[in-house]
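Section 5.1 Outputs to date
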Amino acid sequence: PGKKVLIVYAHQEPKSFNGSLLTIAVEELTKQGCSVTVSDLYAMQFEPRATRNDVVGGLHNPEMFNYGVETWEAYKRGCLSKDLVEEQKKVQEADLLIFQFPLYWFNMPAILKGWMDRVLVQGFAYDLSKSYDFGLLQDKLSLFSFTTGGGQEMYSKEGVGGDIRYLLWPMQHGIMHFCGLKVLEPHICYAPEAVSEEKRKEMLTAWTQRLKTLWKEEPIDCSPEWYFK
């Protein structure tokens, strides 16, 4: 009880299966006494592009624009754009970050990738000397909950898509672990569009059940072995 959760949600339709997963998470975690905040990226019309507009006022080097350097300097000066400051505040306050989305092209949708690109700036989420186990967002948990188009057998070592864990390497390891967050086992709903209504209900029930004991879970071993062994 009293834990703070941020759910970053990337789906266009509230009545979608992803929308149902979001609703369940909000209801179940709230019932546990958690305080839940949702960043509904499409509803917010979140800007996914990393541009000059992310810096308010003058540039550190007006001669040549370097996004990484400029946002780092702007973060230190308190001169990032308002939407970024708001999202960073939500991240800062959260004990757990849940990312809810449909898998697009073996990856997260562009709007969610844009959130990662823009919100997790140097100085806020990591520093050159402070990354991975020493990242600036230590003591926070993260969880990727997503749906796929293909069935589970497609995403196995023997399947045409290869092991689903290969796809999680850039997201979980390259972003979350890099910024110091601990990573919980992903929650994957395979091909909800291709299964029976009954199977979909089972998937939703499984998510509800998992959320009930979520805080007792141990994070995964953040090493290449988890992904590639």
